[in-house]
Specification:
Strand order of the largest sheet: 12-13-14-15-16-17
Shape: elongated
Largest sheet: 6 strands, antiparallel
Structural class: alpha+beta
Distance between the termini: 53 Å
Helix content: 25-40%
Number of strands: 21
Number of helices: 10
Radius of gyration: 51 Å
Strand content: 15-25%
C-alpha cells in the first residue's frame, strides 16, 4: 500500500438536479475520511453527513471512488470532495509483540494523507512572503478589516472610474482650487451653523429640542400661555356651586370638574340603588340587594355559555392525572415494557455531569456500540460478531494474529536437553526394575566374574528437559 498521488481534493462539481454520483480521485481507508461539501448559490457551505446524506464507494482503492448523494443537488449548487483524516494515531506497537508491515504501512499512509489534507488548506490561505517580518501580520489584518468596512464606498468609486480618470488629468489645478475652497467653505459653513442655531433658539416649534434637553424660546412661551389659561379655567370651575353640591370629575383630564346636585336624600341606602344604570345586567338584582344567590340569577347558565362546569373540570383533571401517571418521569422512573427508538441512526446519549463526559449508545450500518463526545466510534460490534475498538482496532483479527504469532514462537523456540546422568544396578534375577520417574534409559553394561559365578547388570539413565519460551526449562515426566 502506498499513496502514489498528491491529489487531495476533487471538484467543485456543478449540480444539475439529476446527477447524484461524484468522483473523488484520492485514496481513503474509511468512509468517514471523505468530507462532502455542499455549496449554495450564495456561497454558504454545508458539510453533508455520511449515510444520512450520501454513501461512499472505492474505500481503500488507490484511484479513489465516488460519493453517491441521496438527493441530487439543484442547478446553482456545487459539490466539493476533500480529505478528512482524523488527527489521531491509533497504532499500538508493543515490545516483543508481533510485527505486521501492513499495519505500519497503513499508519504511514494515514500520516501522508494528513499532510496532503493540511497542504490543501494551506494552499487556500493568505500567506506573507517568506522574507516578511512576522510583525507585519497584524498590519495586514488591520488593512483587510479596513477594506471590508469600506466595501460599499469602494464599489461606488469603481462605478465612477471614468470621471475619476478625467479629474486626474487636472489634478494640479484642482489641488489649488481645493485648498482655497476648503478655506472659504469652513468660514461659510461656520456662518451658516451660527445662523441656523440662532433661528432654532428663536422659532423651533413647540416640543422640538434645540440642543441637549433645552427647547426654543417659542416653546417656553407657548407652555407659559397654556399654563396660565389652564389655571384660569380651573379657578373658574371651582368658583360657584350651591349648598349640598359636589365637585365631580367629568373626564380623564386633570382639571375637568363640574358641580353635581344629589336629587334624593338617602339614594345610596335604596335597595335598587343603581348609579351606573346597569339594570339590564343578569347580576343586577343580586348586586343591588344581596338577597338572591348568584347561582340562581335568571339567565346565568345562558350567560356562562361554553364555560365548563366544576364536574367537567374535575373529570378533565382526573384524565390528565391518569395520562401523566402513564408517562416516564424525566427525573427517573422504572419501565416495565420495551423502549423502541426508530430513525436513520438511533442513539441514546449518556451524560456524566460529575466529569462533564458524554457517551452515546449508537446503532447504524449494521453495527452497535459506543460513540464518544467527538461523534466517532469508540467500541462497536457488527452483525457477524466482530468487535472493534478505537484503541485496538479489529479484536477478532488481533486475537487471531496474536495466537498465530504465539504458536509460531513456541514452535520456533522448542528445544530439549539431557541432564543428571546416573546408573542403576540389577543383580537379582527375576525382579523387574524401572528407571526413576521422569528419566529415560540411555545405556547398559553387563559384568560377570571369571568363574562365571557372579554377575552385575547395570543400566544408565538421564532426565529429559524441554524448553518453554514462557516457563523456561521443564523436566519431562511420565504418568
Amino acid at each position: 500500500m502506498t499513496i502514489p498521488s498528491e491529489v487531495n481534493r476533487s471538484g467543485p462539481y456543478n449540480g444539475n438536479g439529476a446527477t447524484k454520483t461524484f468522483e473523488y480521485k484520492f485514496k481513503i481507508y474509511d468512509p468517514l475520511h471523505l468530507r462532502v461539501l455542499h455549496t449554495a448559490p450564495d456561497g454558504t457551505d454545508t458539510i453533508l453527513q455520511h449515510q444520512t446524506d450520501y454513501t461512499v464507494t472505492g474505500v481503500g482503492e488507490d484511484g479513489g471512488g465516488s460519493a453517491v448523494l441521496l438527493v441530487a443537488p439543484e442547478t446553482g449548487f456545487k459539490i466539493t470532495l476533500l480529505l478528512s483524516v482524523p488527527f489521531v494515531q491509533e497504532i499500538d506497537l508493543e515490545n516483543q509483540g508481533a510485527y505486521f508491515a501492513e499495519v505500519v504501512e497503513t499508519a504511514l499512509d494515514l500520516a501522508a494523507m494528513r499532510d496532503q489534507q493540511l497542504q490543501e488548506e494551506v494552499s487556500r490561505a493568505v500567506k506573507l512572503p517568506a522574507s516578511a517580518d512576522a510583525s507585519e501580520l497584524d498590519e495586514l489584518v488591520g488593512d483587510i478589516l479596513r477594506l471590508a468596512d469600506s466595501a460599499d464606498a469602494i464599489d461606488t468609486v469603481v462605478g465612477m472610474q471614468e470621471n475619476i480618470a478625467a479629474v486626474a488629468e487636472v489634478t494640479d489645478a484642482l489641488q489649488t482650487v481645493s485648498t482655497n475652497i476648503d478655506t472659504i467653505s469652513h468660514a461659510y459653513h461656520g456662518t451658516l451653523e451660527a445662523r441656523d442655531l440662532a433661528e432654532k433658539w428663536a422659532s423651533n416649534p413647540h416640543g422640538i429640542i434645540v440642543t441637549g434637553d433645552a427647547y426654543s424660546s417659542r416653546h417656553y412661551a407657548i407652555e407659559a400661555r397654556a399654563e396660565a389659561e389652564l389655571m384660569a379655567g380651573v379657578t373658574a370651575r371651582f368658583s360657584g356651586g350651591t349648598t349640598k353640591q359636589f365637585l365631580v370629575k367629568s373626564s380623564d383630564s386633570d382639571y375637568d370638574f363640574v358641580w353635581v346636585t344629589i336629587e334624593t336624600v338617602g339614594d345610596m341606602l335604596r335597595l335598587d340603588y343603581d348609579p351606573q344604570g346597569i339594570g339590564g345586567d343578569v347580576f343586577d338584582l343580586a348586586n343591588m340587594t344581596g338577597l338572591l344567590p348568584v347561582a340562581k340569577v335568571d339567565g346565568l347558565e345562558t350567560a356562562l355559555g361554553d364555560y365548563y362546569t366544576k364536574s367537567e373540570i374535575d373529570e378533565t383533571v382526573s384524565q390528565r392525572d391518569t395520562a401523566i401517571a402513564e408517562k416516564i418521569a424525566r427525573g427517573g422512573d422504572t419501565m416495565t415494557g420495551d423502549l423502541r427508538i426508530q430513525n436513520t441512526g438511533p442513539s441514546v446519549t449518556l451524560i456524566d455531569t460529575d466529569n462533564n463526559q458524554i457517551r452515546s449508545l449508537h446503532h447504524n450500518d449494521g453495527m452497535i456500540g459506543l460513540v464518544g463526545a467527538d461523534g466517532t466510534w469508540k467500541l462497536r460490534v457488527s452483525d457477524n460478531g466482530k468487535v472493534w475498538t478505537s484503541e485496538l482496532g479489529d479484536l477478532n483479527d488481533r486475537l487471531e494474529n496474536r495466537a498465530m504469532a504465539w504458536a509460531n514462537d513456541r514452535v520456533a523456540n522448542l528445544n530439549s536437553r539431557w541432564v543428571s546422568r546416573n546408573r542403576g544396578l540389577r543383580n537379582d534375577e527375576g525382579v523387574w526394575h524401572e528407571v526413576p520417574q521422569g528419566a529415560a534409559m540411555t545405556g547398559t553394561y553387563y559384568w560377570t566374574d571369571n568363574a562365571g559365578g557372579t554377575f552385575d547388570f547395570n543400566y544408565v539413565y538421564r532426565y529429559l528437559q524441554l524448553f518453554d519460551p514462557v516457563r523456561g526449562w521443564i523436566t519431562a515426566h511420565y504418568a
